[in-house]
Amino acid sequence: MSWDETRRRWQAIREITSVIERDATGELPWDETYAEIFGDRDSLVRALEYRWTLMVQAQLDPELPDAVLAETFRKLTVRNAGLLRVLDRCANGEPYAAATKRMEGIAVVHA
Predict the structure, then answer these.
(1) 29 near 16, Cβ under 8 Å?
(2) Looking at the record's lineage, which domain of life comes first (predicted)?
(3) What's the CA angle centered on 104, arms 76 and 56, to 5 degrees?
(4) Does residue 46 fall inside a structural domain?
(5) By CB distance 3.0 to 4.6 Å, which of 39, 58, 69, 104 could disulfide with 64?
(6) Which of 83, 1, 19, 93 is nearest to 45 (CA)?
(7) How do residues 85-104 score in pLDDT, each as one tens digit?
(8) Domain membership of residue 46 as a residue range
(9) Residue 110 belongs to some domain of the structure
(10) What angle do CA 91, 95, 101 make, to 5 degrees?
(11) Could you tell me if residue 75 is inside a domain?
């Protein structure tokens, strides 16, 4: 993938994420431009999953105390509620946030 393609892809992901966060339906945005960039909806979902994984990995330092880690994760899920709604709708089975918590080994306390 060239630099221009990579830049275009990340720009589209930021744009899609912005649309998702304003839309409470949990629908995956899709149009001809996104089809050109991602090929199909599954590839877009995988790109959004990757974005979520990067955010989790970047913001959750395992060296933090459990309470701080849990609060940081809670804030992350609140800030990205739209993205998680879309990922939940596209996932088979349990909500994506719950799967991510278990995957990362995070004990999140629900307030």
Answers:
(1) yes
(2) Bacteria
(3) 30
(4) yes
(5) 69
(6) 83
(7) 999 888 765 566 655 665 55
(8) 3-104
(9) no
(10) 115
(11) yes
